[in-house]
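Blinded run. Sample ID left blank on purpose so nobody reads anything into the name before looking at the predicted structure. Input follows.
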Amino acid sequence: MNSIPVLSPVTLPWYQLLDSGNGEKLEQVGNYRLRRPDSQALWTPNLSTDEWQKADAMFNRDGTSAEWITKKVSEKWELQHDGLKFLAKLTPFGHIGVFPEQAVQWKFMSDALKQTHKPTKVLSLFSYTGIASLVAAQHDAHVTHVDASKPAISWAVENQKLSGLEDKPIRWIIDDALKFVKREIRREVRYDGIVLDPPKYGRGPGGEVWQFEDSFTQLLDACRQVLTPDPLFVIVTAYAIPISAVSLGNVLEQTMREFSGKTEYGELALQEENSNRLLPTSLFTRWSKS
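Blinded prediction complete.
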């Protein structure tokens, strides 16, 4: 098992982390400069207060309330990445529909799919607005995209149309991830690759409770049972959980012990523009056959 302390995306044409500090981050996302809270940014910002005040939108948390304070920002705007197009929006939770640190995981999956010449099936769980699913579909994988949120699925379908991938075989499933995978086991459906982006806490469409510490190992074991005998990859990203990347890596390595391959683990981070400083965003572990 290999430790990769930090993975940070290479330059992204549609995203720059301009600065961070005092519990916030300042980002350029396409045409707009955004200011959002980030509890990891415990240090002092590099840029001046004037630069921070140039933000087109700021997500403000005040006690139990939260809202975007905007100048003039479109309801949604288009971003492009490696031939894909997708929409960014200001959501009530402070998200924008895309996590730029995931670009390194998209490349990892893309590279794995490029190396195989057989038809492939990819399962994408907790898939949000579907960019990982579109990356897989872009490489002709048959994709099953599962999320508990109907609005997120609608957003993902909109991204698929925007990217011109309507003819690609993507199944859009609104369901609880664990319940769905257990049904796939019974149906003897198998996948060559699995992408998981589980939250710390969540609820399925039927009120099912997801608690990372209680449910993750059970889900990962179920995922192992729907893998083909010669799988390509398993990718896990986890946000705001009370365990370490080492623990994640240990669980995945044990889960994949019957397969020949390698397991990696570490942190995902964003590097500030014009600075070597990194802003950590999440933990990851991933397995690949090579």
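Unblinding after everyone has recorded impressions. The mean pLDDT is 95.
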